[in-house]
Design goal:
This protein has four helices and four strands. It has about 140 residues and is of the alpha/beta class. The protein has one domain. The chain starts with a strand and ends with a helix. It binds zinc ion. Zinc ion binds next to helix 2 and helix 4.
């Protein structure tokens, strides 16, 4: 797997992520051929997340976004955040099937139902990923 780092404000912050990926990178499924890690300054946006993950099954690529506020967290929160985001890749194909195919189709028939289904799906995925992220962190 190839890892690309982009836009990091300092070499030490990039190294922090590199070190976390050395420990937890084996969570990434083998079908991911490229991991793009991008540091974003989104301080003026509404987003309060520390990081986010976008898996692109078509391109065998995963995009890990690290927001600047990530770096002001304690070590345990940083570890949990990285594990959490890497676990999202595992449900990426299911998520793509449910949200991009099924729920988008439902939206053409019943908009309100599709909104409810999408919110429910996101909640369930977050709960699942967070549960296993804590499980892994407790044992590492
Ligand atoms: Zn999440």
């Amino acid at each position: 797997m190839k890892i690309n780092f982009e836009n990091f404000r300092s070499p030490s912050q990039q190294k922090e992520i590199e070190d976390l990926l050395k420990v937890y990178g084996s969570i990434i499924p083998s079908y991911v051929k490229t991991l793009n890690v991008v540091n974003w300054d989104d301080s003026d946006g509404e987003n309060r997340d520390y990081a986010s993950m976008k898996y692109e099954p078509k391109y065998l690529e995963a995009n890990l976004n690290i927001y600047n506020r990530f770096f002001s967290n304690k070590e345990q929160v940083k570890k949990l955040t990285i594990i959490h985001e890497l676990l999202h890749i595992h449900v990426g194909r299911i998520s793509s099937l449910v949200r991009d195919d099924v729920i988008k189709y439902v939206a053409t028939k019943n908009e309100d139902l599709s909104i409810f289904m999408d919110r429910s799906y996101i909640g369930l995925e977050e709960e699942f990923v967070e549960h296993f992220a804590n499980f892994i962190l407790d044992r590492s």
